[in-house]
Design goal:
Blueprint: H1 3-15, H2 19-32, H3 46-58, E1 84-87, E2 94-97, E3 109-116, E4 126-127, E5 132-134, H4 136-142, E6 152-155, E7 163-166, E8 171-172, E9 176-180, H5 187-195, H6 211-215, E10 218-221, H7 224-267, H8 272-284, H9 286-289, H10 293-308, H11 323-340, H12 343-358, E11 373-376, H13 377-380, E12 383-386, E13 399-402, E14 407-408, E15 411-412, E16 418-420, H14 422-428, E17 439-443, E18 447-452, E19 459-461, E20 465-469, H15 477-485, H16 487-496, H17 507-512, E21 514-517, H18 520-563, E22 579-582, E23 584-586, H19 598-604, E24 609-611, H20 612-619, H21 623-635, E25 646-649, H22 652-656
Parallel strand pairs: 3-8, 4-7, 13-19
Antiparallel strand pairs: 1-10, 2-9, 3-5, 6-7, 6-9, 11-21, 12-20, 13-16, 14-15, 17-18, 17-20, 22-25, 23-24
Helix pairs in contact: 1-2, 1-18, 2-7, 2-18, 7-8, 7-10, 10-18, 11-12
Amino acid sequence: MDAQQFLAEFGHIANAPGGVDHLRELILHLAISGDLIATESPIDASPLLETIEQQKRDHTEKKRVIPKQASVSREIVKAPAHWAVCRLGDLALTITGGGTPSKNHPAYWGGDIPWASVKDMKELKFLDDTEDFITEEGLKNSSSNLIPPGRIIVCTRMGLGKIAVNRVALAINQDLKALELPKEVDSNFFLIIYKTREVSGTGTTVSGIKQDQLLALPAALPPIEEQSRIVAKVDELMALCDRLEQQQQQRRKLQNALRQSTLQAVATATSPHELQTTWTRLADNFGQLSSAPEDVVSFKGMILDLAMSGHLSNIAHRHASKGDELLDAIAARRIAWSMESLDQERKEALAMLKKIRIQQASTPDLALPEHWVWSSLLQVSKVIIDCDHKTPSYSTTGFHLIRTTDIRDGEMRLHSTKMVSQESYLARSRRLVPKSGDIFFTREAPMGEAAIVPNGSPVCLGQRLMLVRLFEYLFNNRFLIYAIRSPSFQNRLQSSAIGMTVKHINVGDVENLMVPVPPRIEQDRIVAIVDGLFHLCDHYMDQLTRKQRMATNLVSSAVSTITGITTEPDEEPMKAPSTELIAPIRLGETPDIKAQAPLAKLLTRHNGEMSAKDLWQRYGGEIDAFYAQLKTEVAHGWIQEPEVAEMRQVTAERAEA
């Protein structure tokens, strides 16, 4: 390894996203390629393999002895010429599998024998303790053996790639294997080799690697003395990585504290001059206060809370009118609307008046400018209606059906909506036909998102959505969107939410949610200010995103350049699944207990959301059967339509990666 080259690239690697992990990976690869230490008088390690093979021939446990592996070409293993090139199975004497005692038999559990499974395989070098214990009877029933201390425990199914050395006698389950090493192989060096192997698995339900494939992985063995020196150097460098990571975490913690302190100074400014001073300080030091896109997200939240507490209004002269005068104007216009409207609109107008007469909403204990007032969402609205709760039937053409997944970050995304026929559109809009300028609000999955209906795109409400219509010349709909998106509003929303698995909010509680009400001219001014600040935030966000992307690319390039590692298989590659399922899967309407909805019931037990891969693995069975069941449950509304739910072919390049 070129030390100057490594030092030149070190900063790029260490400061990139996940940079310390990349450094740890780099150290391991340099260790097994012989580039980590210098050797003045190399000793041929080939005789070690013959010694190990002789021990296998003399071993007493013949049925567990690992047979001699097929030879491997030195061209595919980057190692010094004096190292012995071999297979993983050539470095171990025996391999022992695990068992599966009956979970339902009380006599098998609660004994004194540690029982190891995947959940016990932490990211540590040693396996010292386990969560479960079995009895002698349980051990006999499991078909497992008591594994003596000092064996290498590896995962071959769930938790593929995990490895540890057991320091206590224990039994293992069917997802683990135990390898016995000869004295010619340092166990710590074996850990390094294993962690740098491409231990990839196959399987339609749970990914796993076959024993023969595991033992056939290529490896290289240095002399014993060299193994010890490499292990010592790796431990030394890993300790330095730990210190570097700790320093980065401390720096990040200080940066977060400084950013929050600076934001707090802006938020608590008591005069226009103080606000201008603290704001200038924040703007001038934004680069030092933010190092990741999520920092900008919190900055946007602070802007919205400042706007909704009246602080941004200090930047310009306030208007002489008051918020309560605006509420009076809205109330008067609502009464006039009830008198001049006809048919369904008249019903909705009268229903609104009745709701307001009996509404009981509590005012937040948060200070507002003296000319602002608190008001419920119901009071500032012309009308609020809930969606049709029937499961919609989709169509290939027609009208946009807006689902909760189509509303994100204050925007209504029409590029991936489902379509409904005109008949279904009219049925779902029988109470009120949505029009541009209306606000759609999500009650569940996710809760509290809102967006304005755009011009020229007929839309209708999907499930778990509400429509909020304002008197557009009295109340600025974009001000209301910003109010809903503010962290203070979202906190009030969370306090009103219900549900053990998937949080949601009832219609009446949505109507009772409180928002600040400044005069209309001040709303317009605040919206213009927030728009400008968000434009700057988006600029910073783009810069940070590009910076992280460039850093990540530099890391990949640097690691590849320094190590020269290529992943060219020397044999026929293991068969990988030809398709993959992408997108998170979220719970929709809770199915009846008698409904044939196994996927929705799995989601219910896992907080209403799982990755598609996890849900598939827990469901079991072939992928086609899983996908068919998923489509059925989506059609019934038990599962939300994923934003991107597709089976896509895995290209040859990705399958090999």
